[in-house]
Amino acid sequence: MEQQLTAFIYPFILFVVLGVLAPLLLANVADKARPDEDELKAPAEKSLYDQLGGAAAIDAAVNIFYRRVLSDAYIKVFFEGTDMTRQAAKQKAFLTMVFGGPNNYTGMDMREGHKHLVEKMGLNDSHFEHVLAHLRSTLAELGVGEAKVAEIIAIADSVRDDVLNR
Ligand code: HEM
């Protein structure tokens, strides 16, 4: 009788372990190894605007940027007749839009907005380079990583021909 019981119990235990527990454990391990949907989506779908830190980050960047621009003797002359409070607000809205944030920009397009500066004041590549350099150092000051800085500078550089009206 006892022998019959042992002969039944061991195969039964083997059946439970291999047939039920092992598949459950393996399924759990496989599930953990697979990245969840948010992890898969995040890098591709998060806008540059969000990656930088949203409105607060753009605000800080534009404020520091114009402080640098206005203390640069080579280019500050362009801003002498400009209301800098309004200009900073326009620049914040513009950058928010091009970085993939909410689109509330109602200012002029880049060609229209800088035409008079090209025609009357000779705005050219050398001035544009100064602006890019200030943007770069502003982002570095805020601790933005090199790869992200390069991405942002490429976006800024993509409007060069419009700004310089050519
Ligand atoms: C990445 C390049 C640039 C971007 C994204 C940019 C963006 C803008 C924006 C959004 C405006 C507002 C347009 C409006 O009035 O509706 C503006 C105006 C202006 N920009 Fe730029 N800009 C760039 C390059 C430059 C450069 C290189 C200079 C000169 C060194 C410059 C000088 C000005 C000035 C003086 C105004 C105001 C014009 C006025 O008061 O009539 N910008 N810019």
What is shown here, in short?
This protein is mainly alpha-helical.
What gyration radius follows from the Cα positions, in whole Å?
Answer: 30 Å
Largest sheet entry: none
The total tally of domains equals 2
CATH superfamily of the largest domain: Globins
What are the bound molecules?
protoporphyrin IX containing FE
Order of helices and strands: HHHHHHHHH
- Kindly identify the CATH topology of the largest domain: Globin-like
Average pLDDT, rounded to a whole number, is: 88
Number of helices: 9
Mass-distribution shape = rod-shaped
Number of strands: 0
Percent strand: under 5%
CATH arch. level architecture of the largest domain: Orthogonal Bundle
Structure description:
The chain has 2 domains: 2-34; 47-163, Globin-like (Orthogonal Bundle), CATH 1.10.490.10. 74% of the residues lie in helices and 0% in strands. The chain has 9 helices and no strands. It binds protoporphyrin IX containing FE (HEM).
Q: Which features does this protein show?
A:
mainly alpha; Globin-like; binds protoporphyrin IX containing FE; 166 residues
Secondary-structure blueprint:
Elements: H1 2-33, H2 37-45, H3 48-52, H4 54-70, H5 84-98, H6 110-121, H7 125-141, H8 146-157, H9 160-163
Helix pairs in contact: 4-5, 4-7, 7-8
